[in-house]
Amino acid sequence: MRIQGQFTLFDREEFEEWLMKQSFKRKVVLIQNHHTWSPDYKDFNGSNHFQRLDSMKSFHINDRGFSDIAQNLTTFPDGMIAVCRPFDVAPAGIKGANSNGICIEHFGNFDIGGDKMTDEHRKTILFLNAVLCKKFKLSISTESVVYHHWWSTDGDKVFNLKTGEKLKGSPSKTCPGTAFFGGNTVLDAQKNFIPLIATAFNDNGEDEDKLKLTNYQKTQLIEVLKGLLLQGVITDKSWVDKAQNDTLTVSELTWLNMIVIARK
């Protein structure tokens, strides 16, 4: 973790530890995803995070007339995360969607023909959306995780966030980019972005959720599951397979226990 002025720079692990300790007053229901477009990857040298943030802040205040840097968070090509505008202050991200939003700017130009997203940047973008959904107890869906492209300049929704149906008006921008995780429409996000966030969410804390059993306990669990299967209490053989292959998690076993209690 590094701090310079109002900006704090984290790696993924540091950010999650910081985030989960925070208490915020503002209600958050939307996670906004943007790309900076300019500056883009050619303007990042691997160590100038704070210079880039200072430049964006200066542009937003002096040229755009904002009170501060627009975004609450910035992600970088090397996978680092910067906290920018305080979380309890609404961002200047999407007109019509700021009062209950958190704005993330992903450093780069992700329009077709623009920057090729690095693996570390990709991991951080997915991770960040996942941990924010976790922190604010949001559904991992296009009704919570949104793109700037889905709103008009006037601040009206251009698409139905659930179905992707086109509504009135025209998108204000291509942001977060026509090549951002396969495209910038609601349906693109539902197909290519949301499932990856869900995977990142489920992978988060995977070691803690791993079921740790002795050989005896494993054998007993398998026998119990086989018995439940024969009795028809459970009907999916994959429960037995997971126990045999050591892939059954604590969360899954808790869920199964609830199902068994309800059915017996």
UniProtKB/TrEMBL annotation:
This is N-acetylmuramoyl-L-alanine amidase domain-containing protein. Residues 26-160 form the N-acetylmuramoyl-L-alanine amidase domain. One of its GO terms (molecular function) is N-acetylmuramoyl-L-alanine amidase activity. Pfam families: Amidase_2 (PF01510). It comes from the Bacteria. GO terms for biological process: peptidoglycan catabolic process.
